[in-house]
Amino acid sequence: MVDMDAELLSLVWNNLFSNAIKFTEAGGMVTLSLKSEGEDAVVQVTDTGCGIQPEVGAHIFEKFYQGDTSHASQGNGLGLALVKRVVDIIGGDISVSSQVGKGSTFTLKLRKKGKS
């Protein structure tokens, strides 16, 4: 189990799940995995959505950045910046891998409880 503020982590999960759903068309899939790697818990949120262009992926954790403006009315570009800030505060790491037209995987590494 990860020793973090549950309320902060709920912001992370809510944002990652809602984005995965928002950018995945009907009939697509969103999957969640959790595994243990040494002293870390590794959570992956994967979708079969539209994917992210490499030049967009380089900026998605910045405030107000919206790579896909077709969904601009559904958000303000703060979600992933907030996720990154929370992950930094709790001492974790977040990354994204994506392929346009195939989907994206957000990988979150968190130190397990009692490990420092």
| Largest sheet report | 4 strands, antiparallel
| Poorly predicted sequence stretches spanning 5 or more consecutive residues | none
Total count of domains:
1
What is the third-level CATH name, the topology? Heat Shock Protein 90
CATH class term: Alpha Beta
Order of helices and strands: HEEHHEE
Instruction: Supply the helix-strand structural class.
Output: alpha+beta
Order of strands side by side in the largest beta sheet? 1-2-4-3
Beta-strand share of residues: 25-35%
- By DSSP, the count of extended strands is 4
CATH superfamily: Histidine kinase-like ATPase, C-terminal domain
* Global morphology: globular
- By DSSP (H or I, 4+ residues per run), the number of helices equals 3
Give me the Rg, rounded.
Answer: 14 Å
Helix content: 25-40%
Overall average residue pLDDT: 85
CATH architecture: 2-Layer Sandwich
Provide a compact summary of the structure.
The protein is of the alpha+beta class and 116 residues long.
Give a description of the structure.
There is one protein chain. 21% of the residues are buried. A hairpin with a 2-residue loop joins strand 1 and strand 2 (40-47). A 4-stranded antiparallel beta sheet has the order 1-2-4-3. Helix 1 runs antiparallel to helix 3. It has one domain (6-111): 2-Layer Sandwich (Heat Shock Protein 90), CATH 3.30.565.10. Helices cover 28% and strands 28% of the residues. With 116 residues, the protein is α+β, with helices and mostly antiparallel strands.
Task: Record keyword descriptors for this entry.
Heat Shock Protein 90, alpha+beta, single chain, 116 residues, 4 strands, four-stranded antiparallel β-sheet
